[in-house]
Design brief:
62% helix, 8 helices, mainly alpha, 176 residues
C-alpha cells in the first residue's frame, strides 16, 4: 500500500508555469526529509530535468516523464541534424518511434523565431506532461515527484530571467 503525505502536501503552495518557484528544489528536499521515509526520499532525490537519464530501476512516474523528455530531445536532434545535412543517429539517446504530437512540438519549438520562445514551448510541453501524470495522485509519492520536477522547471526559468544577459552576450562575442 502506498504512503500518503497529506499534511506535507497540503502545506505546499501551488505551482504555475508562468509563476515563480516558492523555494528551491534543495529546500523542498530538506522539507520532505523529515516527513517521508528514507526509501521514498531516495526516490525523490533522483528527480531531474537535465536530460541525463537512466531508465533502469526508477519510479514509473519518473520513467514516463524521462521517456517523454528524451523523445522530445531526440526529435529536436533529428530536426537540427536534418537542417545541417548530418546523420541524426549519433545524437539520439534512444532509437524508437516518436509519437506525432511530440514531433509537432519539436517542430514548433524549432521554428520559433526566438530561441527563448522555443525553450518556453518545450518547457510548457514538459509541464503539461507532468499535469497529465498527476491525474489521480493527490497525497502520494507520485505527487511529490511531479511537484519536484515542476520546481526544477521553475528554477530553470528563474535562472534564465535573472541571468546577466549583457555579460553572456559579451562573453559569447569575445569567445567567438
Amino acid at each position: 500500500m502506498p504512503n500518503f503525505y497529506t499534511y506535507l502536501i497540503a502545506s505546499l503552495p501551488m505551482l504555475h508555469f508562468n509563476g515563480r518557484a516558492p523555494f528551491t528544489f534543495e529546500r523542498f528536499l530538506k522539507n520532505c526529509l523529515t516527513f517521508i521515509p528514507e526509501q521514498d526520499f531516495e526516490i525523490l532525490k533522483t528527480a531531474s530535468i537535465d536530460g541525463e537519464y537512466v531508465f533502469k530501476n526508477i519510479h514509473s512516474v519518473l520513467r514516463e516523464f524521462q521517456e517523454f523528455d528524451t523523445d522530445l530531445r531526440d526529435e529536436l536532434a533529428k530536426i537540427r541534424a536534418s537542417h545541417k545535412h548530418e546523420d541524426a543517429s549519433k545524437y539520439l539517446r534512444r532509437e524508437r518511434y516518436i509519437e506525432p504530437p511530440i514531433a509537432h512540438l519539436a517542430m514548433n519549438a524549432h521554428r520559433s523565431p526566438s530561441p527563448l520562445e522555443g525553450e518556453r514551448i518545450l518547457d510548457e510541453a514538459r509541464w503539461q506532461k507532468l499535469e497529465e501524470l498527476s491525474f489521480g495522485h493527490y497525497f502520494d509519492l507520485e505527487f511529490l515527484l511531479i511537484y519536484g520536477l515542476k520546481l526544477l522547471i521553475l528554477e530553470r526559468w528563474e535562472r534564465i530571467y535573472t541571468a546577466d544577459k549583457v555579460g553572456l552576450l559579451e562573453e559569447t562575442l569575445i569567445t567567438n
